[in-house]
Fold this sequence. Notes:
The chain is α+β, with helices and mostly antiparallel strands. It has two domains: about 1-45; about 45-160, no CATH class. Helices cover about 50% and strands about 20% of the residues. The protein contains four helices and five strands, in the order H-E-H-E-E-H-H-E-E. Strands 1-3-2-5-4 form a five-stranded antiparallel β-sheet. The radius of gyration is 26 Å and the shape is extended. The termini are far apart. Mean pLDDT is about 80; it is low at about 1-10.
Amino acid sequence: xxxxxxxxxxIFEDSTERSRMVRLKKMMKAGAIVFIFLLLSSCxxxxxxxxxxxxxxxxxSAYRQIEEIQRHDPRRERRAHHLQMLIYENSDGEMIRMRxxxxxxxxCLDLGMRAAKNERDFDFExxxxxxxxxxKDLGRLGKGLLVEVExxxxxxxxxxx
Length: 161
């Protein structure tokens, strides 16, 4: 009778250990999801300002930032780590500002290139004469102004920092 009791206790302890392991695995997965969410949310920022009547103050601030970057590295020898965009849409009166790490931009480009290879009906590179690989490693271009576009309706400023 004593052996049976010990045996049942061993099984109970084993079940308890299994449940602890299952709970521990669940907690680790939940912790990993929370960690990834916090990591991604802290690495990029997107802000939208509505009802902007005069976008000049936003662009002047961005130009000052670009000038400061270029003053510290006039030959653009230091590698960039972030892509910044300032976009004004006059029709909506919206100012959009984005700051993205280049590793995230490159990851998105990789996904886009893979998706384009799988899409047989539409060849983006052939249709628009555009090579994604040309912009794959933006960081090597160095910090500073990348693109500036302005027309009657919209204004776009893209720079690397």
